[in-house]
Amino acid sequence: MTAGDGTALVVIDLQNDFCADAEVLDTVTTNAARAVDLARGCGVEVVFVRFLGDVAYQGPSWRSRDLALGKRPKCRAGSWGAGFHKVSPEPDERVFTKRACFDAFLGDGFEQYLVQRGTRHLVFAGLYTDVCVDSTARTAFQKGFHITVLRDCTRSLHLPDEEILRFMSLVYGARVTTHEQLTSWARFAPGEDTWSTWRAGTPVWRAESD
User: Fold this and answer.
1) Among the four residues 3, 39, 62, 187, which has the most C-beta atoms within 10 Å?
2) Distances (CA, A) of 115 to 39, 170, 206
3) Between the CA of residue 54 and those of 16, 25, 61, 66, what are the distances in Å?
C-alpha cells in the first residue's frame, strides 16, 4: 500500500503463547493468516502488533492482579511464546510492540505511523476480540479512524463473540465481516466517507453535507 491509500490490516497479538489452545483457535488463526495473504495480494498494508508481558514491563496493578490470580507472564521478550503464530512479517512491514498493555495506541510509534501514512481505516484480526482488539479499536474510534473487524479472524476470551462484536458495531460504528469478503474491507466504497483534513495529527471526518 502506498501512503494515503487509507486502509491497513492490523494483526494483533497473533503469538504462540496466546495460541496455545490450538484446537479452539486453529480456524481463527488460519483465517487471520489468510487475511494477511489477501491483504498483501491486493496492496493493503499489513501492520503487526505484538505483546510483551515481562514483569519488568508490568505496572503495580498488573502485577497485583497476576499475583492474585496466579497468572504467569505471557510472551516474555525473546521467548518462543512471544513469537508470531502462523504469520511472519515481511522485511518492509512494520511491527509495533505493546509492553504489558492491551491498547496498541499505547505502544511506541503506532499512532504516529498511521497518521504519517495517511491511514484512516483499520481492519482488525488477531486476539482477543474482547481484550486487545477491543481496546485498540476503542481508541481508534475516538481518534477518528474507521473500523472493520474480521469476525472469523478473531475470538473473544471472556465474553460471547457475538456480544462483543455487536457492542463494537453499536458503539464504534465498526463494520463486521469475514476475511473472504475482501471487497467489503480492502477499500471503502466510493463516496462512503469524505475526509477533508488532518488536524493536529488526528484524522477528522467531515460529512459531505457539512
Assistant:
1) 39
2) 20, 25, 17
3) 15, 24, 14, 12
Site of grid cell 479452539? 24
Summarize pLDDT for 151-174 with one digit per residue, the tens: 999 999 999 999 999 999 999 999
Radius of gyration of the chain (CA): 17
**For the whole prediction, is pTM greater than 0.90?**
no
pLDDT in tens, 106-137: 999 999 999 999 999 999 999 999 999 999 99
